[in-house]
Amino acid sequence: MSTVLSLLGSPSIRSRSAALLGELEQRLAAGPGGPRAVARLVLRELPADALLRGDASERGIAAAVGAVAEAQLLLVATPIYKAAYSGLLKAFLDLLPQDALRGKTVLPLATGGSIAHLLALDYALKPVLSALGARDILDPVYATDAQIPRHETLGYSASPEVVARIDSALVRLQPRLAATWAARDVRWSV
Ligand SMILES: Cc1cc2nc3c(=O)[nH]c(=O)nc-3n(C[C@H](O)[C@H](O)[C@H](O)COP(=O)(O)O)c2cc1C
Question: What CATH topology corresponds to 4-181?
Answer without folding.
Answer: Rossmann fold (3.40.50)
